[in-house]
Amino acid sequence: MKVRIGIDVGGTFTDAVAINNDTYEIIGTVKLPTTHAAKEGVAKGIIEVLKKLMNDNNIKPEDVLFIAHGTTQATNALLEGDVVPVGIVTIGKGLEGIKSKSDTNIGDIELAPGKFLRTFNKYIEINDDFDRSIENSILELKHENVGAIVAAEAFSVDNPERENKVMEISENQGLPATATHEITKLYGLKIRTRTAAINGSILPKMIDTANMTEESVKKSGIEAPLMIMRCDGGVMDVAEVKKRPILTMLSGPAAGVAGALMYEKISDGIFLEVGGTSTDISVIRNGKVMVNYAEIGGHKTYLNSLDVRTVGIAGGSMVRLGGKGIEDVGPRSAHIAGLPYSVYADPDEIIEPEIVYIKPKESDPDNYVAIKSKNGKMFAVTVSCAANILGYVNQNDYAYGNSESAKKAFEPIAHKLGITVEEVANEILKKACNRDLEVVEKLIEDYKLDKSTTVLVGGGGGSAAIVPYLAEMMNMKYRIAKNAQVISTIGVALAMVREVVERTVQNPTENDIISIRSEAKEAVIKAGALENTVEVFIEVDSQRNILRAIATGATELRSKDMMRKELNEKEIIKIAADSMNINEKDTKIMLKVGEMYVIMGLKKQKSLFGLITKTIEFIRVVDSEGVIKLSKNNGKIFRTTISQFDENLNKVLDENIFYGDGGAEIPDCFIVLSNRLVDLSGMVDKNQIMSLAKIELNGHREDEEIAIIICKR
Question: What is the top-level taxon of the source organism (predicted)?
Answer without folding.
Answer: Bacteria
